[in-house]
Specification:
The protein has two domains: about 5-215 and about 430-445, Aldehyde Dehydrogenase, Chain A, domain 1 (3-Layer(aba) Sandwich), CATH 3.40.605.10; about 220-405, Aldehyde Dehydrogenase, Chain A, domain 2 (3-Layer(aba) Sandwich). About 40% of the residues lie in helices and about 15% in strands. The protein has a seven-stranded parallel sheet, sandwiched between helices. The chain has a five-stranded parallel sheet with strand order 5-4-3-6-7, sandwiched between helices. The mean pLDDT is about 95. The protein is built from 15 helices and 15 strands.
């Protein structure tokens, strides 16, 4: 990659922007029915089993990370995003509040620069595309260099969907030879950036001078108390941890188990395919998974546990699905396993009473992952409430597989997305799942209403009339 923006790249970006604006102008007056039909076409063309499986597996082959057999299962997200999009209005009047005399009109955000991570080159474009097109926006995708072909080919699928419903294909464009300077320039000239990717690109998006929705790092921590159904908790933990070989930022990283059920829970995790490492193996893993600067090593990211173990210098049985290391009392920047793992490995902790569990959670998020997510397996509503009050996270899943629930599922009410805002904790502007509403401008029309002015006594309560020096 070049260090400076070339004139050729500058001209390319400007040309793509002009084409995007022209495409937006063509659908400016489309009806809600027309936009819904466009969203449906995008959803089917990208989300049908044949197309998505081919491109999802190609993304694994191209990047060298992730679960080739499992990643096609992510296409349910396209279905969920389309469901959510079709249930919302995106043009004209979208909300009326008669009591307050307010009417809300939706308008496009503009041309969106969408940064695509190498972990989801087949999923993020149609997820963004459905919401963006529904809102009459255009998108320029900037892929990760490792997965540029997959992103480019998925963009071609979206363009075909546009053509077949009479929409301009330039609603979707993809940079074919991405570079950091070109991506930065796109963020500077587009109207909005969706930065789903690593910390450097999210930081660059926020420094572009244009509005941006970024994401934050994960370090999902799961509390399991003695009221939990151990078999369900173990099954869900395995599902979450092994999904796409732990590539997602929502994958369970730290499992915090009550002492009274600790041995039973570990046994249940082993029954689900877990391998409990001994102290020697743990030390080998730490040396293999992080380099001298504390960065994760590529050969151990989002891979089978057998590969991670092999790189570390030991072997595990072929039927094992994930690794476990006991990490009690080892929390802090110097303790690598209390950080985000991004692979098929989880750290285990235990607690006596719930105050201990909350203390462990607090310490872990001081290391990393603030703003992202946590979870709990409990039927004790007081415990659920106390964790929700304490945890510095934007979303908390109760008795659900974390990585399959955070971004929305058909069995919870979270909005479907592939981009998770992490709020001020995570250096983001929103705590919400980034969806259709984040890709629109709004005009509020206000009409006069009867005066709504409380008395001074109502406003100031006991302080009204008090002498103040």
């Amino acid at each position: 990659m070049g260090k400076e923006l070339t004139e050729e790249d500058r001209a390319l970006a400007n040309e793509m922007l002009a084409r995007a604006r022209a495409a937006m102008a063509e659908i400016e007056d489309w009806s809600q029915e027309d936009l819904d039909r466009l969203a449906q076409a995008i959803g089917w063309y990208a989300g049908n089993e044949k197309t998505f499986t081919r491109l999802a597996q190609q993304g694994v082959d191209e990047s060298g990370i992730g679960d080739r057999e499992g990643r096609p299962g992510k296409r349910f997200k396209i279905y969920g995003v389309l469901r959510d999009a079709l249930r919302q209005k995106s043009t004209g009047i979208v909300e009326v509040d008669e009591a307050r005399g307010l009417v809300k009109y939706a308008k496009p955000a503009g041309v969106i620069a969408s940064l695509i991570p190498m972990t989801n080159p087949a999923l993020t474009p149609p997820v963004t595309g459905i919401y963006a097109a529904k809102a009459r926006n255009a998108v320029i995708f900037s892929p990760h260099p490792r997965t540029r072909l997959t992103t480019s080919q998925m963009t071609d699928v979206l363009r075909q969907a546009c053509r077949d419903v009479g929409a301009p294909e330039d609603l979707f464009q993809c940079v074919t030879h991405p570079s950091i300077p070109l991506t930065q320039h796109l963020m500077e000239i587009c109207d909005l950036t969706l930065a789903t990717g690593g910390k450097p690109m999210v930081k660059a998006a926020y420094s572009s001078g244009k509005p941006a929705f970024g994401v934050g790092a994960g370090n999902s921590s799961i509390v399991i108390d003695e009221t939990a159904d151990i078999e369900i908790a173990a099954k869900n933990t395995r599902m979450s941890k092994t999904s796409d070989f732990g590539s997602g930022c929502s994958a369970d990283g730290n499992i915090i188990i009550q002492n009274s059920i600790y041995e039973k829970m570990v046994k249940a995790l082993e029954d689900e395919g877990g391998y409990l490492c001994n102290d020697e193996e743990k030390a080998l893993l730490e040396k293999a998974m992080w380099d001298e600067k504390g960065n994760r090593t590529f050969p151990t990211i989002a891979c089978k546990p057998q590969q991670t173990a092999e790189v570390a210098g030991f072997a595990i049985p072929e039927d094992r699905k994930f690794l476990m290391v006991e990490n009690q009392g080892c929390i802090g920047p110097e303790h690598k396993f209390s950080k985000e793992k991004l692979t098929t490995l989880m750290a285990l902790y235990h607690f006596e009473n719930f105050d201990d569990a909350l203390n462990t959670v607090s310490k872990i998020y001081e290391v990393g992952g603030k703003g992202h997510s946590c979870g709990i397996y409990s039927h004790n509503d007081d415990h659920i409430d106390r964790l929700a009050r304490l945890a510095p996270v934007s979303r908390m899943m109760v008795r659900q597989p974390q990585s399959k629930a955070n971004a929305g599922s058909f069995t919870n009410g979270m909005p479907m997305t592939s981009s998770l805002g992490c709020g001020i904790w995570g250096g983001n502007i929103t705590n919400e799942n980034v969806t259709l509403k984040h890709m629109m401008n709004y005009t509020w029309v206000s009409r006069p209403i009867a005066e709504d002015k409380p008395s001074d006594e109502e406003l100031f309560g006991e302080f009204f009339g008090r002498e103040v020096a």
